[in-house]
Amino acid sequence: MSETDITLYISEAGDDAYEGTQERPLWSVAAAVLAIRGKPYKTATLVISGSITEVASPNGMIAITGDGLPTIILRGESKEHLGILNAQGLDKRVLYISDGNTLFLERHIVICGGRTDASGGAGIAIEGGTLIMKDAEISGNDAGSGMGGGVYVGKDSEFIMLGGLLTNNTTNLHGGAVFLDNGGTCTLIDGTISGNKAYVSGGGIFVGIDAEFVMNGGVIADNWAGGEHTVLLMGMPIPSGMGGGVYVCTSGRFTMRGGKIRENRAIAIREDPHNAGSGGGVYVDRGGVFTLEAGAIQQNGVTHWGGGVYTEGALTLLEQGAIQNNVARLGGGGVYIAGKHGGVFTMQGGIVMRNFTAGSGGAVHVTEQGVFTLEQGLIAKNFVTGLGHALAISGLVTINGGAVFDNQKPKNADTPQEDSPQSAEQAAPAVVIEPTGTLILRGGVVEGKIAMKDPSQFEDLRED
Asked: pTM for this structure?
């Protein structure tokens, strides 16, 4: 080890009067931080053994703040002797990072027991710093009425997740696992964000104003938005259950280049408002942008609209992306485009397949003023027990290429054989155009019945 690096040991059986060696470990992280501040170290590795509970800062149990600190690496002693930073009983967050400092979380570290209320980030809050998580666990933290049960990423802050686990973190408002605020950024390269809950929106991730989330891999799975009680703000009930996996706010951006958003749920506990219980995998608010370049949004579910994605903003699906096997009770098994605020879905490739709703639009439901453009890609094997196995259109749909085919109720042991006539339900329209809807077909293939009341609602401009 070079003279610019130092390793200090911390143990629940240690003493802050000791030197911090393996034989004579310190008791608190605060003492270790004090020992390295202002010294000519570039990196400081703090090896923790056992469960550490200390009160070091008004901003959290442990504060990585101020000038004169090197890059700090936290790791546990071993798999058998985890390093647990546990704020249980303190009513404080666990870690606070600011002033341009950088913290690495490596193997065998657990961040747990954090509690906040009005402030965010019960596990870790970053306000002007960088958190790099390699192989650690952030679990069992509760932000109360604050934002970000697990991690809060504020202005001029960055969170890079190379691996590890965020689980069982909660908030009464937004961002069960991670809340990005005011230009904060997060890159998920690998790891799992699972089993977190937000009662209002973003069971896994909330991407706030001017913030950006890039997902290159990893899994966002089995997170929940809504589902237990009415949330009050200034005494008034507010919508709940929006974005079981991910919520993208106005001017927020989410780019998915790999990985999976799967098995998340958005649950409404009352019928109003209209957008409650929507966006099982992803909810894109007005002015938000979600781009699915590669990876899959799959097996998500909602009580209302948009089993895979609910969008009032801009959704783009590219060649290597998939929206599949999602379920919505009321409409938009794969995608629900809410046009009131300018919802737009552009499909330039990829697949929307095997999605289901008991309402309308097995693959895509386009509401009045919503816009869906199919340039390339495949919409297949989606089905409904209501209207439009593939598409339910109240807004504008333009098909320039790609294919819409084989959208009907899957055959099973009780259905006719392949050479028998289809049942009435199987032969139901693949596309239903409501009185306010328009379908323009300039290219591509559309298989199955197209139902409408007025023939002027459908234009087939393909050349013979």
From this structure: 0.94
Contact partners, residue 174, CB within 8 Å, separation at least 6: 147, 148, 198, 200, 201, 202, 206, 208, 247
Residue carrying structure tokens 């303190």: 90
> Which residues, at least 6 apart from 58, have a Cβ–Cβ distance to it below 8 Å?
none
Pair of tokens at residue 8: 């200090």
Q: What is the DSSP letter of 368?
A: T
Prior bond of 40 cis (ω within 30°): no
Burial class (CB in 10 A: 0-12, 13-18, 19+), 364: buried
Question: Residue 366 forms beta bridges with which residues?
Answer: 337, 393
Residue 11 Cα distances to 79, 108, 165, angstroms: 15, 14, 23
For the stretch 287-345, pLDDT in tens is: 999 999 999 999 999 999 999 999 999 999 999 999 999 999 999 999 999 987 789 99
For residue 450, the surrounding DSSP H or E stretch is strand 450-451
List, for residues 349-387, the tens digit of each pLDDT value.
Answer: 999 999 999 999 999 999 999 999 999 999 999 999 999
DSSP 14-76: --TTS---SSS-BS-HHHHHHHHTTSS-SEEEEEEEEEE----BTTBSEEE-SSS--EEEEEE
In sequence order, which residues have a C-beta less than 8 Å from that of residue 128 and are 6 or more positions away?
97, 98, 99, 100, 154, 155, 156, 157
DSSP 408: S
Instruction: Using alpha carbons, select from 424, 421, 393, 420 the residue that is nearest to residue 409.
Output: 424
